[in-house]
Amino acid sequence: MGMTMTEKILARASGSTSVKPGDVAVVNVETAVLMDMTFLPESWREILRVRDPRKVVIVFDHLVPAPTADAAAAHRTGRAFAAKFGIERLHDVGPEQGICHAVVADRAYALPGTVLANGDSHTCAAGAFNCAARGVGGPDMLYAVTTGKAWFRVGETIRYDFTGRLPEGVSAKDIFLTIAGSYGAHVNQNVEYGGPGLTSISINGRRTLAAMGAELSAEFVIFEADDTLVEYVRARNTQPFEPAPPDADAVYRDRRGIDLSTLEPLVALPDAVVNNSVRISELAGQKIDQAFIGSCANGTLDDLAVAAKVVAGRKVARGTRLIVTPGTQATYRAALKAGYIDALLDAGAVVTPATCGACWGGHMGTLGPGEVCITASTRNFKGRMGDPSARIFMASPATVAASALAGAIAHPGEFFRGDAS
Amino acid sequence: MSTTNMLAGRVWKFGDNINTDLMLPGPYLVRSEADQATAVFINDRPEFLREMRQGDVIIGGFNYGMGSSRPAARSLRNCGVGFLLAETINGLFFRNSVNHGFKAFECPGVTQAFAEGDTAELSIEDWTATNRRTGQTLAVTPVPQMLLEMMLGGGILPVLEAQGLIAPRSPH
Asked: A116 pairs with which residues across the strands?
C-alpha cells in the first residue's frame, strides 16, 4: 500500500518500511527548535544531557525584546543552556533573531523529508519545506533534546490539489480562509498540499498556508517539494536531504481540488478561525481601532511588500493604528532596502522589531476593552490579543492594509486593478 | 494501577472547539504553574473554578483543546479535574495531556449522553463511560498502551528524571 508524504517521512524517521493510520511512530527528530517560552521557570527543567547539540536550534521570539524581568531571566537561562552544551544555532536578540518559524524558513533549517519538533503550535509552518514539522508541548521538547526522539500518532490524510493561479490581490491567507471556511477543522488528520497550481504559490505564500494549518487543528501539514523549494533549501543549507513525494497509490481520507483562479479575499469573523469566513462585502464599513500585519503566518517579505504597495502614497485613517511586525530582523532589513518600510512609515504605520508580540497578546500591540482589530496573523480567539472584550477579525495583509486606510474593513481590490497577473 | 482504572465525577459540560486560551489565558503564560491553575476558564466561565470539586469531570464536544501548545492540560490536572471525555480531542492538547499526566479520552456520543451535573463513570480497563443517572454506557476510544502508561504514570517528565536526563524540579 502506498504512503502519503506524512507516512513516508514518519516511516523513514522511525526506521520502518511503512507506517499507517492508527500507529504510534517513535521517530528520530532531525531538528529540535526551542523558543524562549520553553525557558520560562514554570516550563523549564534543567537538562542534564543533550543527545546531539547540532540538531538543536534556539530562537528567542515570544518575549523579544524582553518586556519583563521574567522574560529577561528566561533568555538568560536559554543562553546559559546554549553555552553549556555548545549549541551554535542560537538566535538571540540582534540581527539573526526572528519568530522561530520565520528563522527556520530564512535559514532553511527544516530539511525536506525529515522531522522537526518545536514547542510552538505553528511549527507546521515548516511543512512548506516538505518537512514533517509538528508543534508539540514543552515536555516533548525536553524529550526530543535529551533523547533525539518524539512520538506521533499517525492520522489519516486529506490531500488538496491546486490548479490555476491566484488573482492579483488574493493571497495564500485567502486560500487558507477558503479551506477553513469550507471544510472546517481537520482534527487528528494530516493535510497535504500539491497539484499543478502549487508552483504558482511563492515559498513565502506556502509558509503562510502551512503556518495556518495549526488553525485547522491538523496533525502534520506538508507541501510537495518542487524545484523552487529544492533550490531554495540548497541555497541556504549545505546538509544533504531527500524530499518525500507521495506514492501514486497513497491512500487519502479525502482528496479535494482547489482552483486558485476562482478565489477572492475573505475575512474570518471574531472568536474562531474555522467555519467562520465571510466575504468582505458582508462586513464593509465595520469600524476598526487597530490593523495588524505580522506573526509567523504573515510577517514574510511578500506580506510586507503587499502592505507597502497598498499604503504607498496614502495615509492610515485618523484614529486607526496600523502595526506591522516583520517575521525576522533579516526580513526587516530586506524590506528596508526594498523601500517597503519607508512606504509603511510614510503612511503612518508603526513597524516593530521581529517578535510574536501582538499576535499572542504579549506586547507591541495588545488590544484594550471593546476594541476592534483586523489582523493578518494566526489566531482570533477571544482574548487572544489582549482584553477578552476586544473583537478580532482575520484577513490577508492586503485586506488589513486596505482596512487601515479606510479605518474600517475594506476590500483591497482597487489597489490591484490593472496589475498584470 | 487498578484503582486508577475506575473513576467517577460530577459533569461540567462544554461545547465544541474549546480552545487552550480559554483554559490558560495568555497573560498567565508568564505566571507560576500554581497561578495558571487559578485561571482555568476565568474569562468565559468564572463559576467553574469557584464551584468545582476535586475529581469533577469535563465533557467536551468536537476538537477539545484546539489552539496553542501552552500547557492547558497541566492546568486542568492541577485544578483538580478528574478526567476529560470529548467527542474529539485536538492532537496537540492530547499530547500535552499524555505528557503532563492528565486523563483525556475521546468518547463519541458523549455530548448527547450527559447533562450538566450528571455523574460520569470511566473504566479504563473496559474502555467504557457510563452515565449513573441514565445507566447509558458508551465506548471510549482506547489509547495506545505506550501513551496510556505515560498518561497514567504522571507524564513524560518523571520518565526523563528517572533516566537522569533532566534534573528534578527544585522545591519552591
From this structure: A31, A133
CB A55 within 8 A of CB A31: yes
pLDDT of residue B27: 85
Q: What does the pLDDT look like over A170-188, one tens digit per residue?
A: 999 999 999 999 999 999 9
Q: Please state the ipTM of this predicted complex.
A: 0.91
Cβ distance A140 to B156 less than 8 Å, yes or no, reads yes
Q: What's at A138, amino acid-wise?
A: G
8 Å CB contact of A121 and B69: yes
Chain A interface includes B164 (CB < 8 A): yes
Q: Which residue of B has its CA nearest to A190?
A: B91
Q: What whole-number distance in Å separates Cα of residue B69 and Cα of residue A137?
A: 5
Asked if residue A142 and residue A18 are part of one domain, the reply reads: yes
- According to DSSP, the β-strands at A115-118 and A132-135 are parallel
Residue A356 has pLDDT above 80, yes or no: yes
C-beta atoms of B147 and A70 within 8 A: no
B39/chain A closest Cα distance in angstroms: 13
Helix or strand run (H / E) with residue A161: strand A156-163
* Helix (H/G/I), strand (E/B), else coil: A171: coil
Q: Give the pLDDT of residue B4.
A: 57
pLDDT > 90 in chain A, percent: 96
Mean pLDDT of A56-82: 96
Mean pLDDT over the full length of chain B: 94
CA dist., res. A115 & res. A26, Å (int): 11
Tell me the chain A residues in contact with residue B17 when contact means C-beta distances shorter than 8 Å. 185, 272, 274
Q: Map out the domains of chain B with their CATH numbers.
A: 2-162 (3.20.19.10)
Query: Distance, in angstroms, between A188 CA and closest chain B CA?
Result: 6
Residue A420 domain-assigned (yes or no): no
Amino acid at A307: A
Distance of CA B145 to CAs A122, A166, A196, Å? 28, 46, 42
Calculate how close chain A gets to B63, using CA atoms only, in Å. 6
pLDDT score recorded for residue B170 = 66
Looking at beta carbons, which residues of chain B come within 8 Å of A63? Answer: 30
Q: Looking at residues B114-120, what average pLDDT do you find?
A: 98
Looking at the structure, do residues A56 and A109 belong to the same domain, yes or no?
Answer: yes
